[in-house]
Amino acid sequence: MNSVRQWWKEAVIYQIYPRSFFDSDGDGIGDLRGILAKLDYLQELGIDAVWLCPVYQSPNDDNGYDISDYCRIAEEFGNMADWEELLAEMHRRGLKLIMDLVVNHTSDEHPWFVEARASRNSTKRDYYIWREGKDGKEPNNWQSFFTPSAWEYDGNTGEYYLHLFSVKQPDLNWENPVLRGEIYDMMRFWLDKGIDGFRMDVINCISKTEGLPDVPGTEEGYRWGGDYFMNGPRIHEYLREMNELVLSWYDIMTVGETPCVTPETGILYVGDERRELNMLFQFELMDIDSGPGGKWDIQPWRLTDLKRIVGKWQLAMRDNGWNSLYMNNHDQPRMVSRFGNDGEYRAESAKMLATLLHTLRGTPFIYQGEEIGMRNVSFGSIEEYRDIETLNLYREKALQGNADPSEVLALIHKKGRDNARTPMQWDDGINAGFSGGMPWIGVNPDYTGINVQNALADGDSILHYYKKLIAMRKENPVMVYGEYIPILEDEEAIFAYIRQLDGERLLVILNFTGVPAVCNLAGQFSPSGVELLLSNYPAAVGHHLANLELRPFEARVYRIV
Ligand code: TEU
User: Looking at the predicted structure, is the pLDDT value of residue 540 above 70?
Assistant: First the structure.
């Protein structure tokens, strides 16, 4: 088993979506000084590092994931002096800062693209991916994440450019070594300022299959071409180059966002001898409720599926590599609404899920608001939504008469990205204490009950439970480095496993249902006894392992003595 100690394995990382975290100047948009004002809160929580979503200059077609200047702070977030103050203050407190690196694409307003589209002979033309049309149509039939076609025609120069995301996010051409050099310089710009790592946006999409072939098939229209632009032919060459020329010169950590990786392909990015990345965000758990039609083709999921996915990634990273652990982020529905019960058992199920994330082998990532059990939002009309993916979906389906608008809205309530982007709920005052101005997106109306102020005041809150978990993980290396040993794998109600390190053993038992569940652990292993370390119910009762009764969403962590 791989137990090489590293700070980023022992860390708990907190993700901040700055637009929605805390607004210090009343313009309705969260900002850097807002984060600065909340560092006491983060420190109190016990986290070690912050992953900050993009704060760079951007026209905000995709909320900062469309960058027009990599080395400037967006005005609505503050300025470079604010950012430097934030970094210094975080470091003074022993907190690390991980910046978002978005280099699969830029904004179409980035000076490189402005120059590239000015003429076919521009020196920057080849920084992007341009092709002639085919029979009066797009160069190939690839579908984009956000729009039907992944190509946009540029009337001025008579060619199409590739955009895997919005039309305002043209893909960079990583085959061009000059472009790669520019990216590496930009990375050094931030690393030299002293940051502690990068989260790399869709980093496994930067190498496209040569010739950009059509997705085969007889159907007309655009098709999902993931096989041609994910984990592409030169991806590992690029990442090794990046590592050799940039990353390896600094004491930092990296986590790559990598849709469509399996444990087999994933290890190629994070294997210890690979010299590429430290961790990746895999999507298998996030896709557990997606049918053949993708994210909006919502299907029921079973606990045995979830266990299978978790278990195979735990196993894959046992001897080599390291897992990231997350159940939500700024692109996904709220964890408690999706995997728990956000009604009667909100507190119990949020704590149970937190127990899972902090007792698996890997590095936990907490998404802002998760620690107070924030829930999905159901806005009543499409006008209240802001996310480009959601708005495009609605336009394509409901407005073009392809689906009943209320059904599309129901899908958005379940899976839309704005579920995670409503303002952080600080108190029960105006705008949940997020902003004195008009928030850029509506506050979830449940803020009067669900907010940080209430959570701090209630010793039994989800927030206090997170603090306990984080502290426990620091005190118990077995929670970080211990081997993961699954038990009761075919059980549909209970998720149970053992963690083991140097003779020390923990037993984790989680009821994933809203009804009592009984399990029999006799014969699974032979403990001389168990000692309860943590439970999400005030008083755990009945520790007879042959007949263990768990209450709805109950979580227990035992030390096997
Ligand atoms: O996300 C990429 C990604 O693969 C998906 O999560 C996708 O954006 C979407 O959520 C599918 O439903 C990253 C960023 O996290 C996301 O916010 C950006 O919009 C995207 O890249 C483009 O930069």
Answer: no
| Active-site option among 23, 257, 331, 554 | 257
77 vs 52: CA distance, rounded Å: 12
Which of 201, 231, 367, when mutated, tests ligand 1's pocket best, judged by the most ligand atoms within 8 Å of its CB? Answer: 201
Please indicate whether residue 295, judged by its CB atom, sits closer than 6 Å to ligand 1.
yes
Looking at the CA of residue 65, tell me the nearest atom of ligand 1: 23
- Mean pLDDT, the chain, rounded, equals 96
Distance between CA atoms of residues 433 and 426, nearest Å = 5
CB 171 within 8 A of CB 164: yes
pLDDT for residue 245: 98
The DSSP code sequence of 398-428 is IITTSS-HHHHHHHHHHH-GGGGTSPP---S
Q: How far is the CA of 57 from the centre of ligand 1 (A)?
A: 18
Q: Is the CB of 151 under 6 A from ligand 1?
A: no
Per the CB < 8 A criterion, the answer to whether 530 and 543 are in contact is: yes
Pick from 411, 416, 443: nearest CA to 430: 443
Tokens coding 159: 């060619």
DSSP codes of every residue in 338-363: HHS-SSTTHHHHHHHHHHHHHHSSSE
Decide: 65 in ligand 1 pocket, CB within 6 A: yes
Question: Is residue 326 within 6 Å of ligand 1 at its C-beta?
Answer: no
257 is catalytic: yes
Separation of alpha carbons 556 and 535, rounded Å: 5
Higher pLDDT, 524 or 378: 378
The total of other beta-carbon atoms located within 10 Å of residue 332's CB is 20
For the cut 90, the answer to whether the pLDDT of residue 525 exceeds it is no
Among 135, 138, 145, CA closest to 161: 138
- State pLDDT tens for residues 281-310: 999 999 999 999 999 999 999 999 999 999
Cβ–ligand 1 distance for 367 under 6 Å, the answer no
The pair of structure tokens assigned to 106 is 């830029």
Angle between helices 263-270 and 235-245 (to 10 degrees): 20
Structure-token pair, residue 103: 């280099």
Which atom of ligand 1 sits closest to the CA of residue 417? 10
From 15, 168, 331, give the residue whose CB has the most ligand 1 atoms within 8 Å, as the site to mutate: 331
> Residue 51: CB within 6 Å of ligand 1?
no
Cβ contact 235:207 at 8 Å: yes
Task: Assess whether 491 carries a catalytic annotation.
Answer: no
> pTM for the whole thing?
0.98
φ, ψ dihedrals at 122, nearest 5°? -60, 145
Element (H, E) at 178: helix 177-191
Q: Which amino acid is at 399?
A: L
Closest CA to 451 of 439, 461, 436, 440: 461
Q: How far is the C-alpha of 20 from the C-alpha of 22, rounded, in Å?
A: 6
Closest residue CA from atom 20 of ligand 1: 65
Residues 6+ apart with CB under 8 A from 155: none
DSSP SS3 for 509: strand
pLDDT for 374-432, tens place per residue? Answer: 999 999 999 999 999 999 999 999 888 888 999 999 999 999 999 999 999 999 999 99
